[in-house]
Request: fold
Amino acid sequence: MLKEREERHLVYDYLRPKKKFPNVWCAGCGIGIVMGAIIRAVDGLGLAKDDVAMISGIGCSGRMPVYLDFNTMHTTHGRALAFATGLKMVRPDMKVLVVMGDGDALAIGGNHFIHAARRNIGVTAIVINNSTYGMTGGQYSPTTPIGALATTALYGNVEQPFPIGELAAAAGAAYVARSTVYHVTELERYIADGIQKKGFALIEAVSYCHTTFGRLNKLGGAVDMMRALKDNSITLAAAEKLEPNERAGRIVRGVLVNRDIPEYTDLYRQVIERAQSAQTATEAEGAKSRTPRSL
Ligand code: SF4
Reply:
């Protein structure tokens, strides 16, 4: 499989290598791993590139649509899901992928996030969670662990981190899964499943930022932080056998939610149909009342 993919240069089918490279990401960053997983997921599903849209906000992960040869929009900070909602409303046939970082998705974009999940609109949101604002220098984000250092928390962060997956699940998403950039085949599978799911799909891709968060917290380089993802994560099935205190601080990987609930653009289309029927009935009634009585 891998050999077959290498032979046909799969990645180059989906990138804009001549126009947009080299990329801005630090060597060793996990964002490129997520991009590779998305490419393989889309390719594996056999989707035409023209049927896929990728939308991002601002931040290191926000650069991803610049490099990919889909229909793309690199939008404003925190607003990727708002743009995606608009696109999905007018093109419900399209596969709309939204790539965000944790700061982008859950701080300035937090309301868009919970309401997109609540509406269950059929977009696939991929949140690359590296616990920091990487591009702007390592400020603490809504997922920075308590006690961790940040350039805006030099004596330790005192805010509770958002559990991204659980937040999306509680808000009403149809599909929620979490994996890491170390577990890349699992991540690819979750992204593919999310794209196929009817409704709002949230895939949390736990990653790292070795150049800001890692350096400040003395966590080593990219390889060390990648190894920590492997060592600190457990499957959902394993986590369910542990006491809450034993689960604390672990990354729990797996499918948190997979449910069939009405999708927003479907419901909205039904509203339009009902409104059109009502309008037609009103017009028919009006025409009837204007018809002169027969002599
Ligand atoms: Fe990745 Fe951090 Fe570099 Fe951004 S700053 S590209 S998140 S390593």
